[in-house]
Amino acid sequence: MLEIVWRSHGPIGAYQILAELSKEREKAAPPTVYRALEFLVGAGLVHRIDSLNAFMGCDEPGHAHVAQFLVCRACHRVAEIDDPALHRALAEKSRAMGFRIEPTSLEIKGLCGECAEVAG
Ligand SMILES: [Zn+2]
Ligand SMILES: [Zn+2]
């Protein structure tokens, strides 16, 4: 299952993962897949992209981190920025406002290089 997320070059939805899984073996039950995804997200191997309701493999698994994502609104390509300085700056500002950030990801919308070129 991790391989399916890794294989896809970009975010993949839970239903796509289910479809891929059922191609490879017996039907996988959705709750099983969701549980497995939750585990992978918790382990830092996979990130959840809330705005796309999808998952993607982490570029730098193996260390706990809060990542930032550049999400292209046209082609839904996602690039991961893993910048601790960026996160620290955000965390400091938030703390100053009495707000505690939870270890979710930050998603930034825009156009990727290719789409920006097409858009002119
Ligand atoms: Zn990551
Ligand atoms: Zn794009």
The fold-level CATH name is Dna Ligase, domain 1
Largest sheet: 3 strands, antiparallel
List ligands, each type once. Answer: zinc ion
Summed up, the helix count is 5
Order of SSEs, N→C? HEHHEEEEHEH
Query: How far apart are the termini?
Result: 39 Å
Placed side by side, the strands forming the largest sheet appear as 1-3-2
Let me know the average pLDDT. Answer: 87
Helix content: 40-55%
Low-confidence stretches: none
CATH superfamily membership, which one?
Answer: Ferric-uptake regulator, C-terminal dimerisarion domain
Entry summary:
The chain is an alpha+beta fold.
Structural features:
120 residues; alpha+beta; Dna Ligase, domain 1; three-stranded antiparallel sheet; 5 helices; 42% helix; globular; binds zinc ion
Describe the structure.
- This protein has 120 residues and is α+β, with helices and mostly antiparallel strands.
- It has a single domain (2-119), classed as Ferric-uptake regulator, C-terminal dimerisarion domain (Dna Ligase, domain 1, 2-Layer Sandwich).
- It has helices at 2-7, 14-24, 30-42, 84-96, 113-119; strands spanning 12-13, 46-49, 54-57, 68-72, 78-81, 106-110.
- The protein has a 3-stranded antiparallel β-sheet. The protein has a 3-stranded mixed β-sheet with strand order 5-4-6, with no helix packed on it.
- The longest helix has 13 residues, at 30-42.
- It is globular and about 50 Å long.
- The chain starts with a helix and ends with a helix.
